[in-house]
Request: fold
Amino acid sequence: MTATANEYVGSAVPAMTGVSIHQLVAFVVMTAALVAAPFFVYPVFLMKALCFALFACAFNLLIGYVGLLSFGHAVFLGAAGYGAAHSAKIWGFPPELAISFGTAVAAALGVVIGALAIRSKGIYFANITLAFAQMVYFFSLQASFTGGEDGIQSVPRGTLLGVLDLRETLTLYFVVLAIFLVGFLLIYRAIHSPFGQVLKAIRENEPRAISLGYRAEQYKLLAFVLSATFAGLAGATKALVFQLASLTDVHWTMSGEVVLMTLLGGLGTVFGPVVGAFIVVTLENYLAQLGAWVTVVQGAIFVVCVLTFRRGVIGELGNLLRKAL
Amino acid sequence: MTIFGVPTQALFGQLLIGLINGAFYALLSLGLSVIFGLLNIINFTHGAQYMMGAFVAYFLLQWAGLGYWWALLLAPIVVGITGIVLERTMLKRLYQLDHLYGLLLTFGFALIIQGLFRHEYGSSGLPYAMPRELAGGRNLGFMFLPNYRAWVIVFSLVVCLTTWYVIERTRLGSYLRAATENPALVQAFGINVPRMITLTYGFGVGLAALAGVLAAPIYQVNPLMGADLIIVVFAVVVIGGLGSIMGSIVTGFALGVVEGFTKVFYPEASNTVIFVIMALVLLVRPAGLFGRTT
Reply:
């Protein structure tokens, strides 16, 4: 049976390996725009968007290329944030170690939750990841080191590698940009590798992939852990940027937001999550004073995307240009 | 008198609260299960529809002067109809796609509904008076039992068991179960499956609204009353096994009681105990306690 476009979540993009020219061009344009951006736009806003962009890319690795919808990805963002904030503030870790530690926390959680969740598919998988996320949320609410409702505040940014003073906003911006680009490229590499091809094969037809001799569960688990790790990298970075780790980042609404970003940008596209994250963060910035309307607008975007716009912004653009972006 | 060093008064008190919570878990997970069985979607709007049930009860009282008993009848119908409209106009278009799109659509609707209610009524909660007939309580000797709470437990048990009976033991239920197995074949026998799907969704939503009306006098009427509850119910559904009717009823009540006892013996874990049980069940039986492997 051949899969028609959109039959599976994230199957809009044909399988391919190697770097194509138009993706290279798109990457250069994106990087140039991000390097120039802090001289025109408020850098803290950009850093927030970059953290969410990396978070969405990590999430997309799972939904777009393995076809698994995690509804609890906020756990990795939030737990890494707590890890980074706690190690920087209480243990006095320098930023590079604090970010590494936070990311490692997310990776470890990814192994545990992934091992339990990966045996189920589709709706069950979404349900189970959501439930685990809620469990971690309640844990964070009660545990003493997270600061409960207050979170961990005034986390020191410190000096990166003893050289770069991160209290300088612009220095911090370029460090965050570098982290984002490294994460983005590693995810790109993972998707366009033989490993990524196997993931896509599992997404399209798992029994067949198994019959070809691939241990589907191990591949899925590895993809899950990778996704959790990059989500953690985003969360740890975000904690240092905002000098805050709070319950917001572990709550299920955050898990919903990353789904929204990726869906809006385009599931299973390389640049979609980045575009989606920038749109959603911008939107929230403008709607912030309207209170509950933010939720309504987010919900409306979900409904419109699902009913009429399933390819997302970049998916539609790619379809128009007949290129995989 | 004490049991394991806990006064019986406290123990039975928590047992009662556990049963009350269990009644809500059972009603909500039953609705989710019925919907999942036929539509193959997880109805993420369920929590919002539970909240709408409570609000409709509140509106009926404020605007039409209709009290609790009318609300118990009318709120499920009103909210059920909104569910039917949602199914007819939007969900219907997604059946041939990946089921995850149904989840995303209903999630979007939950956000819209909760956002609108929160904008209109804030998040502080509105009081809803208990029906006069069920005020007060009785002393059972070992504990004090408020009448309304007893009513909630008994009534939801009756609703759950009636639903189970209709689905598992009647002709209508047999159509429903057959359509769950093979909708195309059932349709070939001349049964209007699309209409059955619509009515099933309406019924499941109605159950959520009914739970909302029952909850209104106990908890306050609050725009976010269903938001966190529904995630616990998702865990209940995973533990019981999706699509199993009796499974969701039994698991609902049982987990409510387990949660209640956890509050007595180890209060720190009372919020997380259900999720821990879920993890354990998944290790042993990935399809849930009563579910079949798909």
About this structure: The longest strand of chain A covers residues 159-160.
